[in-house]
Design goal:
Radius of gyration: 34 Å
Helix content: 25-40%
Shape: rod-shaped
Largest sheet: 8 strands, antiparallel
Number of helices: 9
Structural class: alpha+beta
Length: 493
């Protein structure tokens, strides 16, 4: 379980990228982790640390003393081990120096073995005894300062400072003549406290080095489909303020090694700062996608020739026979009577995308080639070029992104014909009616079903909001364990 939370911490640290950047480099996917999100991340980090720091072995402690009459006594504390750590209070702050995490009022339980040996002139042999002891550490305080930097496109984490202070130690001795030796063992409190204060920062440093190595090893490009990959290169150093930690990634799609970057206006970050707020909601994260992310994805699929379809089945299958067109295109029926047909659809150029207030506008240039099926031969008879203008209104509920599409306008013209001139006004009326009564309702049905954002190792979005503003799509959300979401849904039903 601790390993899953550690990996979630890693994702949480990387996936959310910032919106307030004052650098010469700018990302296309941006986000902001608020203080509320930092508290959530800090709690996950501490919960992971409580389990990953223990058991922690401490070095053996030895002490010799001369006692009147008895002589020289040698005492050794061994197998000293921190068994558990429990944090009751913690804070996280950000600033110019880094991310500061303070833990106070923590407790720790330790176990150890003890033994002593002494020689005395009273007895001609060595005297020894041994046993176990349990140790309770209270008022444990730990403070650390973390630095976040970007090196060669990777987020790097380093430990600037780490300190530990033990306020109080109590030791309970078991075994041997424990009642006799309790006072002698108590003399080791200072050394045990110092050992704890040295061991915990060293263990934390080792954990930070391990986390930094994982961050460095993460790929800078992630395959989203077999065609498209997302550039997740970290852009510029994170910006730390009193209210947030801000990061950013490049965020454009590409196909294999081909990069299709889209020119950006120089003012888009300023617009995002001024207008992109989710109704002033206090959310853990605000994720923003510039419209160029969508444009780059469309360009990848267009250049991969994936925007091409053969349509040969519709609810009214009579439309795919020349007999169904005999009154609209009589010459088609006359030349190919009762022949089956299909439509060869292809996007002629990349669709345009414009994110506006509350909606996403798109213009889709489409070529429709009418094919007649004659035995084993496919005969193109005419090509109609059209531009479909539509608007999409996105929505989000729980972990599901959905939406609806609305036809804004529709234009068409005859590109070429092998059967003479066509009555374009009749064809446009028919296609427009088909779009409104068949195509759009089907698309909206699929859009309402939505896309389920998968949970990551048991964590998902909660009370998310989505909005469109100039050039940007913004999602504000909290993050919570999936079982919490499921229990809420169960309560509603």
């Amino acid at each position: 379980m601790a390993n899953l939370k550690f990996r979630f911490l890693l994702l949480f640290l990387l996936i959310f990228t910032c919106s307030r950047v004052q650098s010469h480099e700018e990302g296309h996917i941006t986000a902001e982790i608020s203080n509320k999100g930092l508290d959530f991340l800090k709690d996950l980090l501490i919960e992971n640390a409580e389990s990953s720091l223990v058991p922690l072995e401490l070095p053996e402690i030895e002490k010799s003393a001369k006692i009147p009459i008895i002589g020289s006594v040698r005492m050794v504390l061994s197998n000293i081990r921190i068994e558990s750590i429990h944090v009751t209070s913690s804070t996280v702050k950000t600033g110019d120096t880094g991310v500061v995490i303070d833990v106070s009022g923590a407790t720790a339980n330790l176990s150890m073995s003890w033994n002593y040996t002494y020689n005395t002139w009273l007895i001609p042999i060595s005297v020894s005894d041994k046993g176990n002891a349990s140790i309770k550490v209270e008022g444990l305080e730990v403070g650390l300062t973390l630095s976040l930097k970007t090196i060669e496109g990777s987020l790097r984490l380093s430990l600037l400072e780490c300190g530990c202070y033990v306020k109080n130690i109590s030791i309970k001795v078991d075994g041997g003549a424990s009642w006799l030796y309790q006072g002698l063992i108590d003399a080791f409190e200072g050394k045990i406290g110092s050992a704890v204060e040295d061991a915990i920062p060293k263990k934390i440093k080792d954990a930070i080095v391990k986390l930094d190595s994982l961050l460095e090893s993460l790929p800078k490009e992630v395959s989203v489909t077999s065609i498209a990959a997302l550039n997740v290169t970290i852009v510029d150093d994170p910006e730390l303020s009193e209210s947030s930690v801000d990061l950013q990634i490049e965020g454009l799609f590409s196909a294999d090694s081909a990069k299709h970057e889209v020119a950006l206006p120089s003012y888009y970050h300023r617009i995002l700062q001024a207008s992109a707020s989710c109704n002033n909601a206090d959310k853990m994260v605000k994720i923003s996608l510039h419209e160029d992310v969508l444009k780059s994805a469309i360009l990848v699929y267009f250049e991969a020739n994936k925007m091409h379809w053969i349509v040969d089945k519709v609810p009214d299958q009579s439309l795919f026979n020349t007999a169904g067109w005999r009154f609209i295109i009589p010459q088609l029926y006359k030349k190919y009577p009762n022949h089956d047909m299909n439509l060869n659809l292809s996007i002629s150029s990349p669709p345009t995308i414009e994110v506006d207030n509350s909606q996403i506008k798109t213009d889709i240039p489409l070529d429709v080639v009418i094919d007649v099926l004659d035995a084993d031969e496919v005969i193109p008879v005419a090509c109609i070029s059209m531009v479909i203008s539509a608007s999409v209104s996105p929505d989000i509920s729980g972990n599901t992104v959905s939406g609806s599409i609305k036809l804004s306008s529709f234009t068409m013209f005859l590109e070429w014909s092998g059967i003479g001139d066509l009555h374009m006004h009749l064809i446009q009326t028919l296609i427009s009616a088909t779009l409104k009564t068949v195509a759009l309702p089907y698309v909206n049905l699929k859009l309402r079903e939505g896309f389920q954002i998968p949970a990551f190792h048991g964590y998902g979005l909660q009370d998310a909001q989505i909005l469109c503003t100039d050039d940007w799509i913004v999602i504000c959300s909290d993050v919570t364990p999936v079982e919490t979401i499921q229990s809420r849904l169960f309560a509603l039903h």
